[in-house]
Every structure is written in structure tokens, then in C-alpha cells.
Amino acid sequence: MPVEYLRTLTAPERTRRTDVHLGLFLAFNAGAINAGGFLAVSQYTSHMTGLVSEMADNLALGQFELVKGALISVLSFLGGAATSAVMINWARRRRSRHEYSAPLLLVAILMLVFGVLGAYHRVIGSSLILTVVLLCFIMGLQNAMITKVSNSVIRTTHVTGMVTDIGIELGRMLYWNRTPDSPEHPAVRANLKRLRLHLSLVLMFFLGGLLGALGFKHLGYIATVPPALVLAALSSLQFIPDRNADARPGKRLPVPVDEQA
Fold first, then answer.
1. Which residue, 237, 249, 253, is CA-closest to 101?
2. Quick check: pTM over 0.70?
3. How far, in Å, CA of 116 to CA of 31, rounded?
């Protein structure tokens, strides 16, 4: 059943399949927010590497206002990630089924807030920095959630690491093993599952960015409403009682003694 499948995507019981499918959806969402957000505020709000570099450059040039803006953006992303970790760990300690759905629902709500702030900017009088802060917070919130879901295997708001991993696996694939495979010198082989995963994530990020940019170009801030509603519907399924939870494949994550992800 489609509803049961969608419910598994945010369930505490995890499998590789549900992690990958949720990751692909969120990569698409992150690409859309990042590209649409750039057209709105002229800044990629998930690009922490660029923002940290921007801080260093502008500090060297004495552009302290620009340093302040970049610092606020980084702290907002950091705050979003911390908020996600707090929500997930709070739910885990209480054996709640909402450990992943609650952060996603918050992402959906904040996406709608972003759309409202942008669409009614002149009426509300919201500032550009507030919009940037909100987008960075959303990106940090989402990225931390999927990171914890997948035990740090999947990230969705930036593609540098994934492109690096794709290059590594392609290098392994092209490597010519001149000597026979042996315990001392095992053959170099590509991890095709990892290669397919990262190629799929990068592709979904690109497609999300393309549609997000086109949506914002032609529809404006209202383009944030459809993905936000889809995300809200997906995360809300976990708030509906599920009598089949015990029979679902995968296992519930135990309360960790020392968090590693």
C-alpha cells in the first residue's frame, strides 16, 4: 500500500531501503530549497564551506558587515543541526515514533514560513538577513536529521563529499589489478552500491535544484508551498497510530550510550 510505504520512510524501524529512499527525497528537497533560495537571497544557504571562506576573505579585507552576515548564516545552520539532534534524542529517550518525523515536520513548517515571509515581505517588513537565517536553519535541520537516520552514510544538503566518493569509486573501477587477488594484496574493486547511491543523490539534488529554480522564476515564493505540503504529509503519517509497527522490517534504534552520529 502506498500509505504504508510512505509511513516506513520516517519510521524508527530502519532498513537500507528506507534510508536510501528518504535520502533521495530529501536531496531533491535540498536542491530545490538551495537553488530557489539563491534566486531569492543571492546566497547558497547550505554552502558552509563557501561561507567560512567568505568570512576569512572579508575579515582580511576589513569588510566586517559581510563577515557578520556570513557568521550569522553559519551559526543558523549550526543551530538547525543542533535542534534536529535535540529533537531526535529527546524522542529516542522516550521511545517515541516521532524521532524523525518531528524534525521533518518542522522543516515543512519553516519552508511555509519562508514562503510567507517572501511573498508578504513588503507587508510584514521582514529583512533579508531573517530570510537567510531561516533557510540556513532549515538546511542544518534537514541535513542533521538524515545524517542521524543513516548513521552518517547519507547527507543531502551538499554534494562535495558525494562527488568525492563517486571519484574514488570510479578510480577503483578503473584500477588495473596486475597481480592475483591474495590476502596480502587484495584486489582493488569498486563498491557499486555506494557508487549508485551517490550518483542517485547528486542527480536528485540537481533535479531538485532545476525545478526549484524554475518554480521560483515563474511562480515566486509560492513555489515553496507544494514541496512543503508534501513533506508535511509525509512526516504527519507517523502521528497516525500504526498497528503494524511491530511487524515492520528493520529494528528500532536503541538509546545510545555514546552518540556517534
1. 237
2. yes
3. 20
